[in-house]
């Protein structure tokens, strides 16, 4: 995959696109704000990153977009004033939203059934984790022995095939079962932009993400926002810029904060 232009080295180019518009930051959690770790519950936001997010959010719109349950990622970030998009866009809530979006409710019975099927099928596979979210099931195989990983992936894909309201999706060390509904992170962001009436003349969205599921957002926003891939997921990307890791994300957000505060000072 060709190397993307660094969002740090090209920050002046990115900043020039702000113009007189405010920016809205859309940030993935795992792999973007926190490093990927074997146990998802140990992916904890650093206090330095939390303070940085809090300072940005005090002046600009900041939305967390995650494959995690909305309540789970909201608890991890612990900044109640933000808008949280959970389950890859299937669950959206925030203080500025009068309306919540709950796509995929019809798939809940199938998710309940598939969860039990997978727990039974993978009970004898060391390291396999079946994580139930409200609107998805994540089957983790990162800690499974290499010779058994294919079995785990097949079990997950077969479970999805048994339920017409579900579909499988790959990720970093996981297979997820999601509602078989034409909805994803990109469409959830479009819904948010429309619902909040964010005019492209007044607001520029900036999206940072590290996973294949973020590609939906990159494609959706390519013509009207700034998109940044964190790390390398090993596939072609629609992102415009790149950052190597969570540390570089912190440096990029610090630059954004400095620009936001400088703009606020010049207008005061």
Count all strands and give the number. Answer: 11
What do the pLDDT scores average to? 92
The CATH class of the largest domain, by name, is: Alpha Beta
Task: Based on Cα principal axes, name the global outline.
Answer: globular
Number of helices: 8
How do the SSEs run, as a string of H and E?
A: HEHEHEEHEEHEEHEHEEH
Topology-level CATH name of the largest domain: Rossmann fold
Assign a percent range to the helix content: 25-40%
Radius of gyration: 19 Å
Pathway: Glycan biosynthesis; trehalose biosynthesis
Organism: Catalinimonas alkaloidigena
GO molecular function, one term: trehalose-phosphatase activity
Catalytic activity: alpha,alpha-trehalose 6-phosphate + H2O = alpha,alpha-trehalose + phosphate
């Amino acid at each position: 995959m060709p190397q993307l232009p660094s969002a740090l080295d090209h920050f002046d180019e990115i900043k020039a696109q702000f113009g007189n518009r405010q920016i809205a930051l859309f940030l993935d959690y795992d792999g973007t704000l926190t490093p990927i770790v074997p146990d998802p519950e140990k992916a904890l936001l650093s206090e330095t990153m939390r303070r940085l997010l809090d300072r940005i959010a005090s002046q600009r719109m900041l939305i967390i977009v995650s494959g995690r349950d909305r309540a789970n990622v909201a608890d991890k970030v612990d900044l109640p004033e933000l808008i949280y998009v959970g389950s890859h866009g299937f669950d959206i809530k925030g203080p500025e939203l009068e309306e919540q979006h709950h796509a995929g409710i019809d798939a809940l019975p199938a998710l309940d059934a598939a969860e039990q099927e997978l727990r039974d099928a993978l009970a004898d596979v060391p390291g396999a984790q079946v994580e139930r979210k409200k609107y998805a099931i994540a089957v983790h195989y990162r800690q499974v022995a290499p010779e058994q990983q294919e079995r785990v992936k097949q079990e997950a894909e077969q479970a999805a095939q048994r339920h017409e309201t579900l579909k499988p999706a790959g990720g970093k060390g996981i297979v997820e079962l999601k509602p078989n509904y034409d909805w994803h992170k990109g469409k959830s962001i479009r819904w948010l932009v429309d619902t909040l009436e964010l005019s492209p003349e007044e607001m520029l969205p900036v999206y940072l993400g590290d996973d294949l599921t973020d590609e939906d957002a990159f494609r959706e926003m390519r013509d009207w926002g700034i998109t940044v891939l964190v790390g390398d997921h090993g596939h072609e990307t629609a992102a415009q810029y790149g950052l190597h890791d969570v540390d570089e994300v912190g440096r990029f957000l610090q630059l954004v904060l400095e620009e936001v505060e400088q703009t606020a000072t010049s207008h005061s």
